[in-house]
Design brief:
The chain is of the alpha/beta class. Bound molecules: nicotinamide-adenine-dinucleotide. The site of nicotinamide-adenine-dinucleotide (NAD) has 31 residues, from α7 and α8.
Length: about 475
């Protein structure tokens, strides 16, 4: 059995406790590796190492830091197939998309590298006897705590800007699938970074994550994960008033107007809904469909969902693999049962497959639930699985808008109409960090991503995100009292 150590201060080390824990393949239930079980003492060591590296790394010329980030991107691209295979094994990502997703992630390093080089300060208009200028500086030690749903991409989304801008980092990757992050650390280890610039600690969130969020030596927490954990982190981080970037959950509305092109909307939304087995924060969560097109949309969506190739993620033809763990599969099934108990109807799926190879592994078939009401659990909470919730049809724009906004989350939203002006009116009123009109395609490093309401604080991607990984300093010089 392959054993993985943690990376602290430039060394590959066992946990202080010497304990390890298993990683499973979600498609086969086989144990595929063991990783070090970190705890508070390992966190202390990693934070000490990151603090020691900080003055060295942060004082390197920006050009040098950016060149290293470009090298990381190149290494990720070179090893994309290998990393993709690990992702398929530890997460169930279909092989068809796994390597491409590594390449897309690597572009976060390229983008951060380029843009960090032109993140200029400003001078502020003052009187002729005074010089006032603003400069951006690294924040310090950043704790990066990330979820299991796209394991490597979530780490890279924070590591790339943090590192490019001169911060040192302690990564706590997802507990259940940390192997792609450990592989990234192996690649970083070949680049001669000052020891401790990047550290990686594996172990449970309740121990390693909490220790990092509360640690006096950590200046900022970059967190992606559930709203509930985000709140815990906020509270722990408040003890030392840490900076926070929180990318949390969503319950994203999809509004299908009566003038929408259903034949374009359906294939797009099928991809958006069932990609990564629905384990995506931006997945459609609630479908509000105009009563005039409800029947047509449901029928076409159902037919397309039935055709999805669900199966072994290592097979190049597979479109949808398993869920990440038995625990998560049970949670998704609990949501489906709650919908039935509350009076909704499962019109497709809702069950585990029984045919090999899916008689083992953590599967739920593509599922459609109809008759969902606003107050049902499946309408209010994030399911994070291959489950489309069709709400009761609407018959006025005002009603659709009111129901779409009636939720504690505000991550993203989707509007389908052929009337661009009508769509843009919705865009102004929807309470979400993103509104996509006429598509549900993914994001890029230049685009800001982040939620309204309980979906989080701050942005991933874009210059706004780069700013979040820096402190802004005002320097004010009186030219009369400083003569030389
Ligand atoms: P989670 O909150 O359970 O865990 C996220 C990370 O936090 C993991 O590394 C975990 O080990 C750690 N953690 C758990 N408890 C902790 C604690 N008490 N203190 C500190 N750290 C702790 O989330 P998850 O189940 O891994 O991921 C799914 C969630 O992530 C969903 O809600 C999804 O919407 C969200 N997500 C959001 C985005 C976004 O961009 N907004 C992207 C991906 C996932």
């Amino acid at each position: 059995m392959k054993q993985y150590k943690m990376w602290i201060g430039g060394n590959w080390v066992d946990a202080e406790s010497s304990k390890t824990y298993p990683v499973y393949n979600p498609a086969t239930e086989e144990e595929i590796a063991r990783v070090a079980l970190g705890d508070r003492s390992d966190v202390d060591k990693a934070v000490t190492a990151a603090r020691k590296a900080l003055p060295v790394w942060s004082k390197k010329p920006q050009a040098e830091r950016s060149q290293i980030c470009m090298k990381i991107a190149a290494l990720m691209q070179e090893h994309a197939v290998e990393i993709g295979k690990i992702d398929t094994m530890e997460h169930g990502t279909p092989a068809k998309t796994a390597a491409t997703s590594v390449i897309i992630s690597s572009q976060r390093f390229e983008w951060a590298a380029y843009n960090a080089r032109s993140l200029m300060g400003h001078t502020v208009p003052a009187n002729s006897e005074e010089l006032v200028y603003l400069q951006r500086e690294p924040i310090g030690v950043i704790a990066i705590i990330t979820p299991w749903n796209v394991p490597l991409a979530m780490v890279v989304g924070k590591l790339a800007p943090a590192l490019a801008l001169g911060n040192s980092c302690v990564i706590k990757p997802p507990s259940i699938n940390s192997l792609t992050s450990l592989k990234l650390a192996k690649l970083l280890d070949t680049l001669g970074l000052p020891p401790g610039t990047v550290n990686i600690i594996t172990g449970p969130g309740g121990v390693v994550g909490e220790a990092l969020a509360a640690h006096r030596g950590v200046d900022m927490v970059g967190f992606t994960g559930s709203c509930e954990t985000g709140k815990t982190i906020m509270s722990l981080a408040s003890q030392t008033v840490k900076r926070l970037q929180l990318e949390l959950g969503g319950k994203n509305p999809v509004i299908i107007m009566d003038d929408a092109d259903i034949d374009t909307a359906v294939p797009d939304l099928i991809t958006g809904q069932f990609r990564n087995s629905g384990q995506i924060c931006g997945s459609p969560g609630r479908y509000y469909i105009h009563e005039k097109v409800y029947g047509e949309f449901l029928e076409k969506f159902k037919t397309a969902a039935q055709k999805l190739a669900v199966g072994d993620p290592a097979d190049e033809n597979t479109q949808m693999g398993p869920l990440v763990s038995a625990e998560h599969r049970n949670r998704v099934e609990g949501f489906i049962q709650s919908a039935i108990d509350e009076g909704a109807k499962v019109v497709l799926g809702g069950k585990r497959p029984t045919n090999p190879p899916m008689d083992k592994g953590f599967w739920v078939m593509p599922t459609i639930i109809t008759g969902v009401k606003q107050n049902m659990k499946v309408a209010r909470e994030e399911i994070f699985g291959p489950v489309a919730c069709f709400m009761e049809p609407f018959n006025s724009d005002e009603k659709a808008l009111e129901m779409a906004n009636d939720n504690r989350f505000g991550l993203t939203s989707y509007v389908w109409t052929n009337d661009r002006a009508r769509g843009m009116r919705f865009a102004n009123e929807l309470q979400a960090g993103t509104v996509q009109i006429g598509h549900s395609a993914g994001s890029g490093p230049e685009l800001p991503w982040g939620g309204y309401k309980e979906s989080g604080i701050g942005k991933e991607g874009s210059l706004y995100n780069l700013y979040e990984y820096t402190n802004l300093k005002r320097i004010q010089v009186d030219l009369r009292t400083t003569k030389k």
